[in-house]
Amino acid sequence: MPQQRTVLIESGVLKSFLYDSRAARREGGGARSTGNARRSSYRSLPRLGASNLVVGTGEGSAEELFARVGEGLYVESVAGVHAGVNPVSGEISLGVSGRLIEGGKLGSPVREVTMATDFAGLLKGIVHVGGEGRWVPLYGSVCAPPLVLEGIPVSGE
């Protein structure tokens, strides 16, 4: 099954889901594969997964976003994606590290911080989207701009 462009969310509205042939059969109701099967290695069976996931850009550099935020946390890396995201309930609990945003500029580094929310809360929390997307080699490839989220609980040092 050839891959295709599949718009998942547009203007804040869920438009589609990703399907491989197996998931489309289980869904029923005329669901068809979107060509989203992938393998983690040549030894594994294909399973549902995204490749080249692109998050649309907005406006502003990272520095402009820091100025808008004023006070907050800039997340530079995330740990525990395999274990910290529950695909059934949508609950997310991840270890993050990065730097504080203080007075609209990057400040002190932080580590051993936990971010906890659910998938719907994560999407609802997006208040600004930056204009500079970058590619990250995560489960295929993801191109995403900086995102400003509010209302996401964090704890730690």
What this model shows, in words?
The protein is built from four helices and 13 strands. It has about 160 residues and is of the alpha+beta class. It has two domains: about 10-50, no CATH class; about 60-130 and about 145-155, no CATH class. The strands form five sheets. Strands 6-7-8-13 form a four-stranded antiparallel beta sheet. The chain has a three-stranded mixed beta sheet with strand order 5-11-10, with no helix packed on it. The N and C termini lie far apart (about 50 Å).
How many strand units? 13
How many strands, what sense, and barrel or not for the largest sheet? 4 strands, antiparallel
**Overall form:** globular
H/E series:
EEHEEEHEHEEHEEEEE
- Radius of gyration equals 18 Å
Q: Give the uncertain stretches in residue-range form.
A: none
The strands making up the biggest β-sheet line up spatially as: 6-7-8-13
Q: Please work out how many helical segments DSSP would assign.
A: 4
Q: Assign a percent range to the helix content.
A: 10-25%
Which labels suit this protein?
157 residues, alpha+beta, 2 domains, four-stranded antiparallel beta sheet, three-stranded mixed beta sheet, 4 helices, 38% strand, globular
